[in-house]
Amino acid sequence: MVSVRYRILGTTQAVRNDGTLVPVGGARLRALLTVLALRPGRAVPAAALVDEVWGVDPPADATGALQALVGRLRRALGADAIGSAEGGYWLRAAADDIDLHRFERLAGEGSRALADDDPGKAAVILDDALALWRGPALADLPDRSAESSRWESRRLDARRARLTAALALGHAEQSLPDLTALCDAHPLDEPLQSLRLRALRDAGRTAEALAAYESVRQLLADRLGTDPGPELRSLHGELLRGTPAGTDPGRPPNGRGAGAPAARGPGQAPTG
Fold this sequence. Notes:
Arc Repressor Mutant, subunit A; three-stranded antiparallel beta sheet
């Protein structure tokens, strides 16, 4: 049987192992494949499929319409690709055959490598994870707001981890464009703002770091009525005292984890 991999981090696609795309035409057909790919190897009840594929506008004969749609998907992917059991349908695929689940695995491995003080390994793994994204998650679901937001949040976590690895590897200057863009998009995200201040400090741009802190402090006061959290305040104190970058407890003194291989610069990681 021809192996097929599925992409749902962007427009839904089915890809044969030789790299050719399997034609999956029609918005409803792609929505059905998306829902099944979210839960590979597990039966999804027919009622749940109807709800997620048609949203607030289900057909009059929902059962018949779903059966017809499943038939079309089987013709596209192969009769064995979609199983039926327990009043529902399931996609015959391993979790790693679907980009979303592969991303989740790689992002977890990258975060663990970072926690184990191996930023070089973390950078390589997280680059592979972020390269799987081709657009908004679950783009072909009619109502994807809640589920998509969860995965976009997970993507942001992975990007934070990748930039943390970059700073530990001494790539502060190269990281600043990505960090600035992310901070502009998420101005109230204090962990991101902390990374930006660290990058400015490590790049020798202390005056800019102090100005950036003041901007963040003012923004938090205006929007939320709060002061910066402990991490930002600690960084601010270090900047005022002129603490050398090498004394940052979160960064190895030599800028790299012990034995860490050279990694791609953060500018090569996808930023969406």
